[in-house]
Amino acid sequence: MVRASIAIVADLTLSSKNPSSLRVDALVVGTCKTSDGLAVVADQFPADVVHEIETLAPQLGLTGAPDEVRKLPAGPGVKAAMLVLTGLGERDADGTFGEETLRRAAGAAVRELAGTQSVAVALPTATEGDLAAVAEGALLGAYTFTAHRTGDDAAKQTPAASIEIVTSYARSSRAKAAIERAQVLATAVHGARDLINTPPNVLFPAAFADAAKAAVKDLGAKGVKVSVLDEKQLTAGNYGGLVGVGRGSARPPRLVKVAYAPAKAAKRVALIGKGITFDTGGISIKPAAGMHAMTSDMSGAAAVLHTVVAAARLGLPVAVTGYLCLAENMPGGDATRPGDVLTMRSGKTVEVTNTDAEGRLVMADGLAAGVEDGHDVLLDIATLTGAQVVALGHRVSGLMGDDDVVAAVLAAAQSSGEQFWPMPMPEELKAGLKSNVADMVNSAADRAGGMLFAATFLKEFVGGTPWAHLDIAGPAFNEKAPFGYTPLGGTGVGVRTMLSYLEAQAA
Ligand code: BES
Ligand code: MN
Ligand code: ZN
What we know:
Elements: E1 11-15, E2 26-34, E3 37-41, H1 47-60, E4 69-73, E5 82-90, H2 99-111, E6 118-122, H3 128-141, H4 152-156, E7 162-166, H5 173-197, H6 205-216, E8 225-229, H7 231-236, H8 240-246, E9 254-260, E10 268-279, H9 299-313, E11 319-329, E12 341-343, E13 349-351, H10 359-372, E14 377-382, H11 386-392, E15 397-401, H12 403-416, E16 420-422, E17 440-441, H13 450-459, E18 467-471, E19 477-478, E20 489-490, H14 495-506
Parallel strand pairs: 1-7, 2-5, 2-6, 6-7, 10-11, 10-14, 13-17, 14-18, 15-16
Antiparallel strand pairs: 2-3, 4-5, 8-9, 9-11, 12-13, 15-18, 19-20
The structure holds ligand BES, manganese (II) ion (MN) and zinc ion.
């Protein structure tokens, strides 16, 4: 049984009260960098408290930089028990702060407030978009994963339970819609993070399929239908990629379809997610150092599942089918060998030159299923290549595919605050697909351009359907240090971009 972390998503309210009058455990205000030091960014705040912080800033070691969070006793005239300063960096040329800056500052502060009951966030909300960003950041920061901790340890790490956002838009109906959306969004991101953070002995393909059923249970009339193909059905259906990757594991593969089909759908979108619940590399085994992080190799499938759930919760007028390509890549006695040839769902054959290039094999079958079911567009999302991490690092995901789909995904990423960067698919890489025995190989002899080659391989399975491929290998799992609203471990990257994309398709 996959256990979710204790709290689901914090309770969120809006207030137009003077922040210093709020009796909360922690009051969050902004700081920023100016030409002569630090400035406190807070409306209606006692001038003497502001003055004291600004003059003491150098001695306190405060600069107003992003991710600088400091807890202080609240001064006289402030009803909150504690004041929390969160850095916003420098103001933009027009004197405001960008939405992502606000999102991160709110998240960084709330992330530091685990174990606190009530939090008020008084960051500048010049527009309703700013308010949405603050709400999203605060909720995204209010996350911990304590399902596998016992005793006091778990209680101490419970995220802030109630968050009040101070804004002049407290009575606007658009603001209310925005915070409802923020709650749906954060619930989805938290749901994806929970799955990623669930250890691989607990989350195997069949357990993931059960988790998908559980995730749609409470949707009621907004119904999402989950159907599961087990290993027998996958074999009978010629899903050679999923079966080939799964055969080295004692825990067999699954293909899970998660379908949301509202009555009036503007478009039919397929989301295909890589769900390798653990990637040892198979017979082409990975080195021991760092292998544990391959518990996150199902991040694409986690993002897809919870994006579909969020689309249903919001009642978007667009049909979305998620395909979760679930397998465990293990080097068991019946594992696929280098040199084996697989016949894929599409009918094409693949010579497996490297069993560690397993993601593209399961994704090829997921893409083929999406094509067969007749969608208008395919988005696939996968922790596909180490080359993505080398090229773009841990915070920027790669984006490839058809120009117009890539442009639409990029616009969605920008509006949601996730970082994606378009990468090319050079014609000459197709030569690397050539196999001496089958239609193609899964891994080119030349490692150069590994992310682009993987996309070139996937393109063989999309037919003529418009398509984009999201490689989230680096950003999916944070092993370094938390920042902004991003915790350690699963980040849930992709959910926000895909949800914004679906909203744009619905419009
Ligand atoms: N799951 C990995 C890619 C990965 C690497 C994700 C690092 C997150 C962090 C994938 O299955 C893989 O092993 N790819 C190989 C492909 C190669 C054998 C062609 C890689 O990138 O090294
Ligand atoms: Mn691999
Ligand atoms: Zn993998």
